[in-house]
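User: My instructor asked us to take a sequence, write out its structure as C-alpha cells, and then describe one feature of it. I'm not sure where to start. Here is the sequence I was given:
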Amino acid sequence: MRPFPKWMLWISSVLTGLTGIVYWWMDTQMEPVSEWAVINHPLQPFVLKAHIVAAPLLVFAVGLIGVDHIWRHFRGTVPRGRASGLSSMFVIAPMVLSGYLIQAITHAGWLAAMVWLHLVGGAVYIFALGVHQVAVKKRRLTLPVVSERAQRR
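Assistant: Let's start with the prediction itself. The C-alpha cells for your sequence are:
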C-alpha cells in the first residue's frame, strides 16, 4: 500500500477512535457537575465535535485504499491478514451508517440501538485494524521483498 493512504488511514483511525473513546467515557462514566448539567465535563462538546470532524477523514481514507488495497486483497488469496482485513472491512459500513443515524434519529429505542451498533462496530474496527497490522508485519517478515509494482501485476 502506498504511504499517504496508509498514514491517512492510521491517523484518521487513531483520531476517530481516541475521540470516540474519550467522548464515551465523558458521557457514561463521569458524573455531571450539578443536577441541572446537560454535559458531564466542560470539554465534552469539543470532544464530540472533534470526533465528528475526524470521522469523515476516516471514511475518506477507507475510500483511498478501497480499490488499491481492499478490493485487490479481497479478490486475492493471501491467507495471512485476510480474516482481520475482512473483519475491519465488513464493520466499516454499519459503523459509518450508525454514526450518521445517531445524529438524525430522535426515537429513544432506535437511538439506543444505533449507539450500541456504533460502539461495537468501532471497537471491532479498531481491534481488527490492530490485528491486521500485526498479521501483515508477520507476513512481511516471512515473505521475500517484492516491489509494489510487481505486486500489482
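For the description part of your assignment, you could build on this observation: The CA atoms of residues 8 and 97 lie 21 Å apart. Try explaining in your own words what that tells you about the chain.
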